[in-house]
């Protein structure tokens, strides 16, 4: 990968040729929506904030791990809510995983209440911009000069094998699915999620 000269594309030196990978190529490969990112007014979102109020009202941040637990516990609300949580989990854990931050964007939680807004949003463009930013910063790190091309070993260690580029698996293996009920996490996040859900339901029924 070449030293970045543009923030809108990736450049790769293959042989003696520089190949460019931009938004057009990304859209053709992924099939995702990549049009201009619109300004979203929360007041125009149908039901915006309901999911946040019901499931995450007392939380300052929502992690991808917590979102996964809320989606998987059997008491996680209606089928419609489970679909919304599945959309959020897929978006935050697979499509646009954030390298430095493991929390879910509150705007996304509000937007998912409106199917038309959420499904029509250019998530492909968001994912591409995050990809370009991460790759360019990875290549520029560790004091490389402007004329230095990174070796494949460096690129592999800093990008493809980077522990900060975390993508959570979407499907568990049969063994993971079997042992999941017996695994205890350090923070006991399952119990935390269930307690939070019961508390919110109690508030709604009073």
UniProtKB/TrEMBL annotation:
Lineage: superkingdom: Eukaryota
Provenance organism: Cucumis melo var. makuwa
The name this protein goes by in its record: DUF1985 domain-containing protein
Taxonomy of the source species: Eukaryota, Viridiplantae, Streptophyta, Embryophyta, Tracheophyta
InterPro entries: DUF1985
Pfam families from the UniProt entry: DUF1985 (PF09331)
Residue intervals of the DUF1985 domain: 5-132
């Amino acid at each position: 990968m070449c030293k970045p000269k543009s923030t809108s594309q990736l450049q790769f030196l293959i042989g003696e040729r520089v190949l460019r990978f931009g938004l057009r190529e990304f859209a053709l490969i992924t099939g995702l929506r990549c049009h201009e990112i619109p300004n979203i007014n929360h007041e125009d979102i149908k039901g915006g904030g309901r999911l946040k109020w019901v499931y995450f009202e007392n939380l300052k941040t929502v992690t991808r791990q917590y979102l996964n637990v809320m989606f998987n516990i059997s008491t996680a609300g209606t089928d419609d809510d489970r679909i919304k949580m599945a959309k959020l989990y897929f978006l935050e854990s697979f499509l646009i995983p954030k390298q430095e931050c493991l929390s879910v964007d509150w705007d996304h939680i509000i937007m998912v209440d409106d199917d038309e807004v959420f499904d029509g949003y250019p998530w492909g463009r968001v994912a591409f911009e995050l990809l370009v930013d991460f790759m360019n910063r990875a290549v520029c790190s560790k004091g490389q000069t402007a004329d230095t091309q990174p070796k494949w070993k460096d690129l592999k260690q800093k990008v493809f094998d980077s522990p900060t580029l975390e993508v959570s698996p979407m499907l568990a293996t049969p063994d993971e699915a079997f042992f999941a009920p017996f695994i205890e996490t350090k923070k006991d996040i399952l119990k935390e999620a269930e307690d939070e859900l019961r508390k919110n339901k109690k508030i709604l029924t009073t």
